[in-house]
Design brief:
750 residues, 5-stranded antiparallel β-sheet, 9-stranded antiparallel β-sheet, 2 domains, Beta-galactosidase, Chain A, domain 5
């Protein structure tokens, strides 16, 4: 068999054991324990800067967690870790549970992560460095095992969860015997030729999706079993070795183990494949990457990212490494096939609840129009107009419905996942189109006009606001609608459709004049009683109507629930930064939803939020069996910084010291990032560490640091970029000029 790819010519032979030949040694006890996703508190996320390699890895708790392939919506791994065994004492220690974890970012211009796990017993240290092969669908791990106790044995433990499901997998070993000869040009420009035995490996598949793990070291004691039943861990604890390994297991929640015969230094290659010959493809991919070599793959990986980072703006050196990582993470979250589709996060918050047996959990690896708009603004701040254009093209050409609206979220093909409608998500693409200068007739007639007409017909009320929970009159949603209509009106005028332009401007002006009437109370119990509310169901903020908060939080007077969404009125150019009601409302949110953390002030989405861990540390439950409490959201500190920057911009003559409040918010976001420079969705808000932490999903909860929700979050990373560039520029670049000129410079008022 010959496979040609670029300069690579690979003859190889694969002997695959089938279930028929292994039937005499198949693991009993299926399907095993319920499958679960790993923690969403990732410390590292990596993929090649190339489009050819369609594999993404995530790191947390000292191990590799979900690996995505062939796109950013399909998770295929629960975890891959190493297990250390003393066969004499039958002591079994795992990286995840029995080690102190450290992660390092090895370069400021590449997502090169190194995990250092030191045994709590002091017996061993495992150092792992990660890369992907920029040419192939494989992850490579350079592993160093250090110990003074030469009697210790090292095992690889691999838990596949193919096709977004932990059930239905089959596992077998030995996977293959491969001899691979490859020729390629190395980074120095020299032609290198290698011939190597890829040894044996372990493989798994599930309905046309497969993974294969191959090792540079010989392996033995290959076991395939069902997780929690006969996956090898219990036998190691009982006997100190896997004396009777199973050659196959399935269908179910399978797990695989293999002893590393020469563990001091070796390479692991995890390859993927899909289609009729999925196992053959996965095994061949892993073997070719292994033969190419970790160092060569890493050099290509780092050059690709270094070249990208060279295109990024320079900010203050204090923030540059975080800035670079945020930009690289946004680039990673764009799918490599469905171009322009940036997902919210490569995570399933809190592991997705009780189990991951079925493949219907989207988690955060979906596309929201709102989140994509936030990413778009970061791309514009970075000067990456091409990426910004791809984002808008995805929204218009893939997501947009025939009536002009957009789904709450969707898969990469535009198929909706959740079924609600959020009016700000209909408006944001209009702002994007204007900011990109997309004034052509086709864009206008096929997309802009349809969306603007939909807003006029269905707004200003929204079935759900930006927190995706409540319907009614929302200041943040109305702000987006007004800005979207003004932008759409200008595009209409440029296309000779003045009738539509006039209608949309009249509507925008009316809503701008009435947003206070609909959403600001005069009889509230905070401050002097006058402030913006989170939302009103009927546009009557002083009626005392009760609102039922989502996530089981209960019923409250609308006047008692506040958020900072009204700041969008300033950021989008609809209200001036010195507006008196805005100022009063800022004081209220500081009173009600601000918490001072060791890293600076953070803010809740709104008071009485139920979307977050319990106070005792138990994770938020996707099944809705108990109510949690929403924690601080990192991005809200950045939004507050943009408001303070808007205040600064309105002060004449302009003084640089005016930037200090916004800079403080940027410092807060910097502090919220973890060791891997990942900025979270939520941040823990308590000084006391809770006692009932489910360590599988939330390894620790520290005051002012990320929780088990979603880390990194694209919106958070985008907000950091946006604020950093805006501070450097001295103004909010994402404020649509045409909206600002109409309502702030023109000083239109109710």
């Amino acid at each position: 068999m010959y496979m040609r790819r670029g300069r690579i010519l690979l003859p190889f032979y694969i002997l695959l054991f089938t279930y028929l030949s292994l039937a005499q040694n198949v693991a009993p006890g299926g399907p095993g324990k319920d499958a679960q996703w790993a923690t969403a508190g990732k410390q590292g996320v990596g993929t090649s800067a190339t489009l050819e390699s369609k594999v993404w890895f995530t790191l947390a708790q000292g191990v590799m967690t979900e690996v995505y392939y062939p796109d950013v919506t399909v998770a295929n791994v629960h975890l891959l870790q190493f297990v250390v065994v003393n066969p004499k004492t039958k002591t079994v220690e795992t990286e995840q549970d029995d080690a102190v974890h450290q992660i390092k970012v090895l370069r400021p211009d590449s997502p090169t992560f190194q995990q250092i796990n030191t045994a709590k017993s002091g017996e061993w240290t495992i150092t792992k460095t990660y890369t992907t092969d920029p040419e192939r669908d494989s992850v490579l791990i350079d592993v160093r095992f250090e110990t003074r106790n030469k009697s210790l044995n090292l095992y690889a433990y691999y838990d596949p969860s193919l096709g977004n499901s932990g059930m239905g997998d089959k596992a077998y070993s030995p996977l293959a015997s491969m001899e691979v000869e490859s020729s390629y040009t190395d980074p120095a420009g020299k032609t290198a030729v290698k011939k190597a035995d890829a040894n044996t490996g372990i493989g798994s598949d599930d309905n046309g999706m497969a993974s294969a793990v191959v090792f540079s070291s010989n392996i033995s004691e290959l076991n395939n079993g069902f997780r929690g039943v006969n996956d090898g861990i219990e036998e190691l604890r009982k006997f100190g070795t896997i004396a009777n390994p199973y050659n196959a297991a399935g269908k179910g929640n399978v797990a695989q183990m293999a002893r590393i015969d020469s563990p001091a230094r070796f390479t692991v290659a995890l390859g993927f494949g899909k289609g009729e010959y999925d196992i053959l493809t996965a095994g061949g991919t892993a073997a070719r990457s292994l033969t190419k070599g970790f160092d060569t793959c890493l050099a290509e990986y780092e050059k690709g990212w270094s070249d990208y980072v060279k295109t990024l703006p320079k900010v203050d050196p204090k923030y540059q490494a975080q800035f670079n990582m945020a930009a690289m993470q946004l680039k990673m979250l764009e799918d490599k096939t469905a171009r322009g589709a940036n997902i919210a996060s490569l995570t399933v918050p809190w592991g997705g609840g009780a189990n991951a047996n079925e493949n219907n959990i989207g988690g955060y690896h979906l596309v929201w129009s709102r989140d994509l708009y936030q990413v778009f603004t970061a791309y514009m701040a970075l000067g990456d107009k091409a990426a910004a254009t791809r984002a808008l093209d995805f929204l218009f050409n893939v997501q947009q419905k025939s009536d002009g609206s957009f789904p709450q979220n969707s898969w990469l093909d535009g198929k909706p996942f959740w079924g609600s409608l959020q009016m700000d998500e209909v408006a944001y693409p209009l702002i994007m189109a204007w900011q990109l200068g997309r004034f052509d007739k086709a864009t206008y007639e096929n997309h802009v006009r349809k969306a603007a007409d939909f807003i006029v017909k269905n707004g200003p009320k929204t079935p759900q606001e930006r927190w995706e929970e409540e319907g009614g009159y929302s200041p943040s949603t109305i702000a987006a609608e007004i800005a979207g209509l003004v932008c759409a009106a200008d595009i209409a005028s440029k296309n000779g459709d003045q009738k539509s332009a006039d209608l949309w401007l009249r509507t925008a002006d009316d809503w701008q004049a009435n947003v206070e009437k609909w959403t600001a109370t005069k009889t509230g119990r905070y401050g002097d009683g006058k402030y913006y509310l989170r939302i009103t169901q009927n546009g009557k903020p002083d009626s005392g109507d009760k609102i039922e908060l989502n996530n089981g939080a209960g019923f409250f007077d609308e006047r008692d629930i506040v958020d900072a969404g009204f700041l969008e009125l300033v950021r989008l150019g609809i209200k001036p930064a010195d507006d008196p009601l805005i100022a009063k409302s800022v004081k209220v949110i500081d009173q009600v939803i601000k918490v001072d953390t060791p890293n600076g002030p953070g803010f809740y989405r709104y008071n009485h939020d139920g979307y977050g861990e319990m106070d005792d540390g138990r994770r938020w439950n996707w099944d809705g069996k108990y109510t949690g409490k929403g924690r601080l959201w990192a991005l809200l500190s950045g939004e507050r910084g943009q408001y303070e920057l808007a205040q600064c911009s309105s002060v004449l003559p302009y003084k640089t010291e005016c930037l200090s409040p916004a800079l403080a918010r940027l410092n807060t976001m910097l502090g919220f990032a973890n060791e891997g420079l990942m900025i979270p969705e939520q941040v823990w808000d308590k000084k006391v560490t809770p006692k009932k932490i489910d360590k599988q999903f939330v390894p620790e909860l520290k005051f002012g640091e990320g929780t088990g929700s979603a880390t990194p979050l694209a919106w958070s990373m985008a907000q950091f970029i946006r604020l950093a560039v805006n501070i450097k520029t001295g103004r909010n670049l994402d404020t649509p000029k045409i909206v600002y000129e109409r309502y702030v410079q023109g000083r239109r008022s109710p």
